[in-house]
Amino acid sequence: MWEIEDIPPSNKLYVRVHKNNINPKTAEPRPAAFKNTPEKGPDLSSDWEKHSTPQSSRDLIGKQFKYGTEAFKNPNDFFIVSFTCEKLSCINPPQSVQHTPQYNNPEIVGEPNNRAHASIIGDKSDEEIRLKFIDIYNWEIKPNI
């Protein structure tokens, strides 16, 4: 089990964006990419740069099951954006961040352990809120469109 740590405002969080949530004309994420996961949940999953890299964040998705199946997700279907915690806190309504490492012993197949896991907490139900995420993201692993 890992200790929960404070995430400094200057640190980056990596968020996975599925290829279906990328506009093929602009190669930019669609607002739907930044819904809470699950949609009715309180947060958006991310990986903290202290314990992750963009590539390791992408690779980890290949150890997760597709929703409702026992088939693994394809990491090549996902791209990585980053946000600084400071910029997330400036969105209205504010988004907070919390280090939420995921650990099971033994590790559960389809639910990999993840020391870097962090939650971006706050309302994202309205598309206008999610559009604000598009103003502050940076590509880490960009699609070739």
From TrEMBL:
Region (Disordered): 22-57
Chain intervals with Basic and acidic residues compositional bias: 37-52
Organism: Mucilaginibacter oryzae
Protein name per Swiss-Prot or TrEMBL: Uncharacterized protein
